[in-house]
Amino acid sequence: MRFAQRLDEHGDLHVLPTDVLGDVRSGVLDDRLFDVTALIRAGYDDRSTRVTPLIVTSTGPVVAGEPLPGIGAPRAWQSGHTGAGAKVAVLDTGVDPTHPDLVGAVVESRDFTDSPDADDHVGHGTHVAATITGSGRYQGVAPDSAVLNGKVLDDHGGGYESEWRARSPTPT
Questions:
Q1: What's the whole-model pTM score?
Q2: Which residues form the Peptidase S8/S53 domain (predicted)?
Q3: Which of 12, 58, 74, 166 has most Cβ atoms within 10 angstroms of its Cβ?
Q4: Domain coordinates in residue numbering, the chain
């Protein structure tokens, strides 16, 4: 297997297998998957973790230009099912409400950690929220839904259910 390397405008090193270059150019694959510098910065290096995260799997071909076909999202949107009026709770590392795909989507935030805020300093919760209600380059499954941001994982992506449950209000 051969690889292509390049530095982006921020000085980040991207390493891409040559057999995916066409898919990256056409937008089928996101170039950020191959940004080695950013992956290391996010803690996906051998020094930071003992496991390799699973980024993508597929049981069949993905059709370029048809978002989320495997779960029938395009048909649902055509039928008017866009998530309008629905609120979806994202319990994760927080959500960045200023992310271009999420502007106006986060309607409430609550921090259940020791972090000073409910913002996402890891990126995972923001990614999850955009998968649900993103309205930018990649449309989410329910693009018209609203997000309730519940930060239950700390600024390093860690936490235990017992910790955030202990900080939750007791039901009356």
A1: 0.59
A2: 83-162
A3: 12
A4: 1-58, 69-172
Domain 69-172 bears CATH identifier 3.30.70.2190: no
Name 79's Cβ contacts closer than 8 Å, sequence gap at least 6.
none
CA 75 to the chain's CA centroid: 23
The residue to which tokens 């972090």 are assigned: 115
- Strands 13-17 and 87-92, sheet pairing: unpaired
- At 22, which amino acid appears? G
**Can you give the three-state secondary structure of the chain, one letter per residue?**
CCEEEEECCCCCEEEEEHHHHHHHHHCCCCHHHHEHHHHHHCCCCCCCCCCCCCCCCCCCCCCCCCCCHHHCHHHHHHCCCCCCCCEEEEEECCCCCCCCCCCCCEEEEEECCCCCCCCCCCCHHHHHHHHHHCECCCECCCCCCEEEEEECCCCCCCCCHHHHHHHCCCCC
Sign of CA dihedral 67, 142, 140, 44: negative
